[in-house]
TrEMBL record:
It comes from Ooceraea biroi. Coiled coil: none annotated. Residues 85-126 form the GIY-YIG domain. InterPro entries: GIY-YIG_endonuc, GIY-YIG_endonuc_sf. This is GIY-YIG domain-containing protein. Pfam families: GIY-YIG (PF01541).
Length: 192
């Protein structure tokens, strides 16, 4: 209650000063427009404050601090990382600091399962993730795949993937994965 009274007193002093001395505009003329104050509605107090302020030529506007939309959260449910689509992601090697950065338009969980099962294919069809696993006897942290960026537009997602590959010094991605990155990004990445 003390806070409210102090706030009202301070605002009233400012308003009285402006009324007594007149607010000057940029061209030097006096601005005689009505002032207003915004305060939360408090039953019993707000009516009295409004009556007093009206005598001072001040409008009183009520605000409602607890609105229904603050209590009831609207919007979409949070989607789990592995169910997200249109993402650039990072898979981390458990035994070493190596990472693989990829992108997918499908559910991330589906793409991670493909990486996991790719090791069973012929040598000529192995992905860089599977080659890293076989050559180094390492494994990846399949359950903690990190989403780096979300983008539904394919070309923008591919550029974002190349951007993250270039930024990551421990990426096991093939160098040709960044061949299509426009040269304008070289200077940006060089400054990071």
């Amino acid at each position: 209650m003390e806070f409210i009274n102090r706030h009202i007193d301070r605002r009233l002093k400012t308003i009285r000063f402006r009324i007594d001395h007149g607010s000057r505009t940029n061209d030097g003329s006096v601005d005689n427009s009505r002032n207003f104050i915004v305060m939360p509605y408090v039953k019993g107090l707000s009516e009295n404050v409004k009556r007093i302020l009206n005598r001072c030529n001040v409008d009183f506007v009520y605000s409602v601090p607890k609105r229904l939309n603050n209590v009831i959260k609207l919007g979409k449910d949070v989607v789990a990382n592995n169910q997200q689509m249109g993402v650039v992601y990072e898979l981390s090697c458990v035994e070493y600091e190596s990472v693989y950065i990829g992108q997918t338009k499908r559910h991330l969980e589906t793409r991670v399962k493909e990486h996991k099962s790719n090791i069973c294919k012929k040598d000529s069809c192995l992905s860089v993730v599977s080659k890293h696993r076989l050559e180094n006897d390492h494994n990846f942290d399949w359950n903690n795949c990190k989403v780096l960026h979300r983008e539904n537009h394919r070309r923008k997602r591919e550029i974002a993937e190349m951007f993250f590959i270039m930024r990551q010094c421990n990426a096991i991605n093939l160098q040709k994965d960044t061949d299509d990155l426009p040269p304008v990004y070289d200077t940006i990445l060089g400054n990071m």
